[in-house]
């Protein structure tokens, strides 16, 4: 059977083979790591989809492949050995000798079919949205394949072009050279630039904001933290309380557990069957977003362990294949040394993200008077194609009540 290069993120169009962990002739089990791929998100470990034997590796380390290309071939249990000989390498046609006369052209010749246009599905979709002629673009992918970044560059160039129409047919403009002091973006920043540009251009979102008192969380953390650290060896953080509260509220809000799907031209939604939350982790020169899976009903101890493992994966630059599947929501917690409030950008493939500002004191009305309260600003960004303001506001209100009132499940 053929194992095709999977799409490991919403913005992934190609991947580079990093390191094969299996060789031809090796047996593999389902879920066993087969290869490391360098994707638009991170270096990811890709697992075998079947039990079987590796019969062919279709690309060497360093090769760049498009999504859907054959990555490897397996022979599964009960499948006979293939007797089909390997295809010979393409041979260039021989030049005609001087004594050979060229064949006469036929009396009537049919026009050759137009060359096939190589473009990723995401590039085609963006081109249709922005009225970009793919035939005018030069692809930066393998074999000239047009990528999403090529269409985005054309859109940006069109926005900067003068509005007046030219009197003569325009010729293909050569790209402007970069200034002498320009520095190329790192792979990490390039991935971020592509993702946030795609989000801003394709996800119509709105923002909701709520102040949430965190005194109850501080008390619970001081009571539960030492015991959990001593018994489980995991330090309990404020983020763990946020994750448990988010998971519980998402489990009770099925309208928030959706993702948009429109690749086939037919707008649709996908309902998540589990509560999965992406965690934005700051790393050198950028961020990574590992995903914590199936958090509904999980204890603080279990969530703390999963959060710690996710942060380690992100900071080592090696996300797992499970991190590639999108979550319904992501959490970005700026921590103590950040801004009081900020808005986060929804990840392509997801429907919402919540941004948590630093914990700080604020004067609030209380019982007919005023008081100083310690808390956070929670800012929820939502994909309006799927979720309306009433649903988002109701979710944010439930989250505020959950954080302010508890209860918390420690074990």
Would you kindly provide a written description of the structure presented here, covering whatever features stand out?
This protein has 411 residues and is of the alpha+beta class. The protein is 26% helix and 25% strand. The protein contains seven helices and 20 strands. The chain has helices spanning 121-130, 148-160, 187-202, 215-232, 238-251, 300-316, 389-405, and strands spanning 2-4, 14-20, 27-28, 33-38, 43-47, 52-57, 64-66, 70-76, 205-213, 258-261, 268-271, 277-279, 281-283, 286-288, 291-292, 318-320, 329-333, 352-356, 360-366, 369-383. The strands form five sheets. Strands 9, 12, 15, 17, 18, 19 and 20 form a seven-stranded mixed beta sheet that branches. It has a five-stranded mixed beta sheet with strand order 7-2-4-5-16. Helix 1 runs parallel beside helix 2 and helix 5 packs across helix 6 (300-316). The two termini are 44 Å apart. The relative contact order is 0.13. The model is unreliable at 83-103, 107-111 and 163-172 (pLDDT under 50).
């Amino acid at each position: 059977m053929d194992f095709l290069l999977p799409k490991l993120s919403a913005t992934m169009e190609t991947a580079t083979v990093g390191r094969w962990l299996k060789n031809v002739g090796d047996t593999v089990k389902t879920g066993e790591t087969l290869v490391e791929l360098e994707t638009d998100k991170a270096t990811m470990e890709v697992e075998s989809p079947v039990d079987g034997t590796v019969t062919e590796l279709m690309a060497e380390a360093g090769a760049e492949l498009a999504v859907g290309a054959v990555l490897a071939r397996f022979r599964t249990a009960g499948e006979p050995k293939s007797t089909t000989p390997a295809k010979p390498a393409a041979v260039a046609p021989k030049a005609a000798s001087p004594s050979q006369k060229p064949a006469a052209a036929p009396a009537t010749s049919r026009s050759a079919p137009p060359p096939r246009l190589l473009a990723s599905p995401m590039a085609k979709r963006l081109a249709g949205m922005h009225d970009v002629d793919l035939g005018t673009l030069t692809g930066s992918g393998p074999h000239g394949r047009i990528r999403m970044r090529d269409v985005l560059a054309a859109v940006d160039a069109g926005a900067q072009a003068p509005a007046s129409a030219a009197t003569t047919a325009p010729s293909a403009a050569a790209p402007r050279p970069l200034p002498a002091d320009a520095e190329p973006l790192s792979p990490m920043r390039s991935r971020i630039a592509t993702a946030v540009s795609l989000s801003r251009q394709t996800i119509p979102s709105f923002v909701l904001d709520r102040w949430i008192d965190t005194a109850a969380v501080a008390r619970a953390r001081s009571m539960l933290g030492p015991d959990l650290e001593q018994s489980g060896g995991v330090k309990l953080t404020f983020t763990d309380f946020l994750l448990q509260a988010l998971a519980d509220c998402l489990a009770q809000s099925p309208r928030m557990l959706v993702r948009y799907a429109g690749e086939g031209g037919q707008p649709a939604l996908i309902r998540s069957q589990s509560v999965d939350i992406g965690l934005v982790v700051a790393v050198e020169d950028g961020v990574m977003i590992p995903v914590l899976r199936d958090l509904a009903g999980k204890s603080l101890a279990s969530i703390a362990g999963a959060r710690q493992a996710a942060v380690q994966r992100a900071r080592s630059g090696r996300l797992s294949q499970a991190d590639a599947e999108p979550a319904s929501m992501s959490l970005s917690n700026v921590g103590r040394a950040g801004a009081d409030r900020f808005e986060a950008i929804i990840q392509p493939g997801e429907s919402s993200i919540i941004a948590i500002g630093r914990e700080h004191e604020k004067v609030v009305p209380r019982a007919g008077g005023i008081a100083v309260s310690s808390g956070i600003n929670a800012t929820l960004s939502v994909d309006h194609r799927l979720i309306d303001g009433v649903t988002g506001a109701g979710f944010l209100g439930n989250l505020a009540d959950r954080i302010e009132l508890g209860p918390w499940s420690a074990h």
